Every structure is written in C-alpha cells, then in structure tokens.
Q: What sequence folds into this?
C-alpha cells in the first residue's frame, strides 16, 4: 500500500505533450511517405540464426496480425536476415493478413549472399540490381517501399551508389531510399550529390540508438535534420539489455535471453560498467514510478528524441509486442527525462567536445545564442 501511495505522489507525465498511438503517422524525412511511430522488424522470422533469434511461423503470424490491427504499417527486413527466410516469411504472411498497398515494406542489401562471388555483395550496381530482384521475389511483391543500403562497403564510389538507387526508383522497383550505418561524411556527400544532380534523395537513415548507445547525438541527429532525413533507430532496447530482466554478475550479463547469449548491442559497449549498471537502476526506478516496464520507458525515450520518426521494435512473443505498443501511451516528466539523460550521458570524444559546453560558449562570446526560437518548428 505504501509503495502505491508513493507512486501516485510522483510526477508521472507531462500532459502538455501530445501522446501518439501506433495509428498516428509521420512523414519520413522530407518525403511524402507516412509511417507509424514504431516499425516492426522481422529479423526473427526464420531459423538460421539460432533459438534466441527465432520466432515460429505461428507466433510470427499472430504478432504481425496484431501489429497491423493496432495501426502499424511499417515493416523492416533485409535480404541477409536468416539467409533470406525473413523476407520469404514476411511476404507469405502479408498476403494472408492485409493488402499489399496498405503496408510500407522496407528491406536492405549489402551483405554477400553468395560466398566466393566477388560481386555477390557490396554496394556496386551489379550486386544492387541482383539483390533487389531477389528481395522482390522472396517478398512476393513488385516493389519495395523503402530500400536501405545496409552498410557502407568502403569501396564503391558514392556516385555509383546514388545513381543506381535513383535508377531503381525510376524503374518502379523501389519507392524511397535510405542509408543504414553510414559514416557521417559519406551521408552528407551522398545526399548533396543527389540534390545537385537531381537524383532521388535519401529519405532516412537507420542507426543504432538507445539509452545505452547515444553516439549518434554527436553528429547524426544534426546531420539528419539539416539534410531532411528521418531517423529510424534500431536496437532501441540494446538487444534486450534495457528490458531490465538481466543481472550483471562480475563481467557477465546473466539471464535467459538474447543479451546473455549473443552480443548485447554495440560490441564496444560494456554492459558491466558502473555507468551501465547505474543507467539500468535509474531506468527501473522511472518505470516503477509510472507503473510501466523498463522496456516501455526506454522505448518512450527513443521515440521522443529529436529527429526520430519511427523506431524499429522486434518481438518473438505476442506479449512483447503488446508491451512495446504501450510505450506510446504516456509521457515522461521533465524530471524523469533529466534523470535518464544524466544516467545515459557519455562525455563526447574529440572533436565533438569542441561543439558543447564551455568551448561553444566561447564561440558565441558568452552571449546567449540559439539556432531558433523554442517554438520555431511548432508542435509535431
């Protein structure tokens, strides 16, 4: 009884902010494509990656059906997920559950599908065309709504990548294009070339983003807003770490699930540090104040970050999907946001610390300068 009384006395929400539902849609960057605030990732549709990355076809159908019924319209897959099984299962299930034009299907290419074939991977035109044709065949559709370059291949000239993507749009096989995990300089060059040459411009970037991994705030958030790109975060729960169900014992993540059996998130992220342990404790405390799960709070935080349009979620069980959808049902108070930001903040490395704090104050000669008035962009 005492715990309940304390919970009711705490600030649980800023009701001045609009609370969206899964059936609230946003434009993807400076495009006309409308997508739901949570994108459903079908990376567990298939059995090629082991049990912790596998959803049975029966569960997959039930989960996908519920996501669509709740208003979700944005699906994310890739040709390399489960060696093509993800696309096949996604396409098969969609035929039974909805009309093709009512969903936004995103897929990706880059990684090699043909071991030993030098043109069987990468972002060159030869592989790109082969890859999109394979994805269309597996998905059972004649177009892909959003086609992602899955990874920078470090070699193919950016002009070739962007001209080839433009040709795919012109051919009707692809509607919109985006980059996943690119270097920031490459992202800027790619979009600028497209703008100057009148080619199809990038609509979005897909980047890892969560309370545990906030690296993109150093550069990509500003870049996305400047270049007209929607941010689509992947791994918003740090591969399960932010669900709060794992324990840290010494130098190990312990628990029954993905985070304890495979990589947690960014391979350079150490979940056993005092910083990470404190973040999880603060996350749990905020979740308790709301009567919510840590996963819901972590997702709520990401979906409300600047530049974020749609956040990729995943589920192997229906209750996980329901939990994720409910992450849209509340607002975090200013105090709770401050605590989460402070617990997850990591000091920027060079050269990014030049762009914050005391050094930035020196740039402005100690005058108070802001890019825009607080209400410049209006309400979302």
A:
């Amino acid at each position: 009884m005492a715990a309940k009384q304390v919970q009711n006395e705490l600030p649980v929400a800023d009701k001045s902010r609009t609370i969206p539902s899964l059936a609230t849609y946003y434009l993807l960057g400076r495009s006309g494509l409308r997508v739901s605030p949570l994108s459903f990732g079908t990376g567990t549709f298939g059995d090629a990656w082991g049990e912790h990355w596998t959803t049975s076809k029966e569960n997959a159908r039930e989960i996908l059906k519920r996501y669509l019924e709740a208003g979700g319209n944005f699906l994310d897959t890739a040709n390399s997920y489960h060696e093509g099984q993800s696309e096949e299962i996604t396409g098969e299930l969609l035929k039974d559950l909805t009309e093709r034009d009512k969903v936004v299907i995103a897929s990706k290419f880059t990684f090699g599908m043909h071991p030993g074939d030098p043109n069987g991977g990468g972002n060159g035109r030869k592989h790109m065309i082969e890859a999109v044709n394979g994805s269309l065949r597996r998905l059972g559709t004649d177009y892909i709504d959003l086609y992602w370059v899955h990874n920078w291949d470090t070699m193919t000239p950016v002009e070739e990548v962007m001209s080839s993507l433009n040709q795919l749009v012109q051919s009707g096989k692809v509607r919109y294009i985006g980059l996943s995990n690119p270097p920031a300089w490459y992202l800027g060059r790619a979009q600028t070339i497209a703008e100057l040459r009148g080619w199809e411009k990038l609509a979005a970037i897909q980047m890892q983003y969560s309370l545990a991994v906030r690296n993109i705030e150093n550069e990509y958030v500003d870049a996305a807003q400047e270049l007209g790109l929607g941010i689509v975060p992947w791994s918003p729960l740090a591969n399960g770490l932010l669900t709060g169900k794992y324990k840290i014992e010494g130098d190990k993540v312990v628990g029954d699930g993905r985070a304890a059996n495979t990589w947690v998130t960014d391979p350079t992220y150490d979940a056993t540090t005092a910083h990470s342990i404190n973040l999880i404790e603060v996350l749990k405390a905020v979740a308790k104040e709301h009567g919510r799960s840590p996963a819901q709070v972590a997702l709520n935080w990401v979906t409300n970050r600047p530049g974020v349009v749609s956040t990729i979620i995943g589920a192997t069980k229906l209750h996980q999907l329901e939990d994720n959808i409910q992450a849209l049902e509340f607002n975090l108070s200013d105090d709770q946001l401050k605590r989460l930001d402070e617990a997850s903040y990591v000091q920027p490395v060079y050269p990014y610390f030049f762009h914050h704090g005391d050094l930035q104050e020196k740039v402005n000669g100690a005058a108070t300068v802001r890019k825009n008035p607080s209400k410049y962009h209006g309400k979302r």
Q: What stands out?
A: Confidence is low (pLDDT under 50) at residues 1-13.
